[in-house]
Design brief:
By secondary structure, the chain is of the alpha+beta class. It has one domain. The chain is globular.
Amino acid sequence: MKHQVICVWLGKHSSEDHFYDKHLAIDYTDEDHANSPFGQDALLTYYDEDFVESWWANPLTLEFLDQQQEMLLHANYFFDDLRKVLVKLELSNYNAITFMFGEAGVNGFNQELFSYEGRQQADSPTVFVFKKEYVLS
C-alpha cells in the first residue's frame, strides 16, 4: 500500500507563456534552494517537478477539467471530491490549475504535502483550493 496525497492550486496569470515559462519555471542558480515563483507563492521549500501537472485554460471551467480528467494520475481517487470544491468557486476568475502529487515512504516524493495546510504569500496569483490523502493498494 502506498500513501499518496494531492494538492491543487488555482491561478490567474497575464498570459499562458508567463504561466508556463515564468511562474512554473524552477531557478536552479542556487541548487540548495532551487525554486519557482509558484513554489514561493505556495510557500513550498522544495518539490519534485516530475510530479506536478499544470494546465492553462482561459477561462478555467468545470467542463474543461472534466474533459481533461483522464490525463490526471490517480484521478479516480480524488477527482469527484475536487469537483465538489471547484463547483463552489467562480472558476472563470482563474486561468490556470496546478496539481501536485506526493507519496510517503523511503522512496517517496513531495512528502511536505502531507503536512501542507494551504499556506500562500499575500497577494499571490496562486490560491490553494484542495488537498486529499489516499492509499493505493
